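Reviewer 2 asked us to include a model.

Predict the structure of this chain.
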Amino acid sequence: MLLHIDNVLSPEEASSYRAALERADWVDGRVTAGYQSARTKHNLQLPEDHPLSRELSDRILAALERNPLFMGAALPLKVFPPLFNRYEGGQAFGTHVDNAVRQVNATGHRIRTDLSATLFLTSPEDYEGGELVIEDTYGTQSVKLPAGHLVLYPATSLHHVRPVTRGARISSFFWIQSMIRGDAQRTILFDLDMAVQRLAAESPDHPSAVQLTGIYHNLIRMWAEI
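Predicted model (structure tokens):
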């Protein structure tokens, strides 16, 4: 499932984050790349232990916890602390797949990367290129979202970032270990959750709402890994 989630950050929040990041000291983005990815990764990155990275990461994690669409789609067990990257001057990231397991440097904790996420911080009109291109079961999807919007997709997907030929593209990226390992099961649960919510809004007293809610939670009991 590939999902576009609007307004994880407000336009004002995204603008203030971007302004702070513009003044930051960036390093070669290959610091977090695996062997295969490092051969095709050409961008800049804010160090994971940079004070600004930690501050903005915590604020993004808080915003995600307040976002019901993200919580319902990802069903997160663990979220890797968000990182920040920058593409400019023709920089790009060739086709790759994300590492299956990531280690949080600050704690040593490891997470399984079930889902990948990119939170756009730069408005699309401020740069040329920079599309995130994801190969999923329904074909190739090209993603370039408004500032503050997020794309969530299976970490098993091949993907790349096209060269940025004008301006700079600043984003946050991170991974999620879901309570539900399989994308097919997460998709079923998400669709069922959305249907239950629509039914509750349109017919709040309909007896099927309780029954379907029970089915949703029983499926989580069957599939969850916690």
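The chain has a mean pLDDT of 94. The two ends are 21 Å apart (CA to CA). We have added this to the supplementary material.
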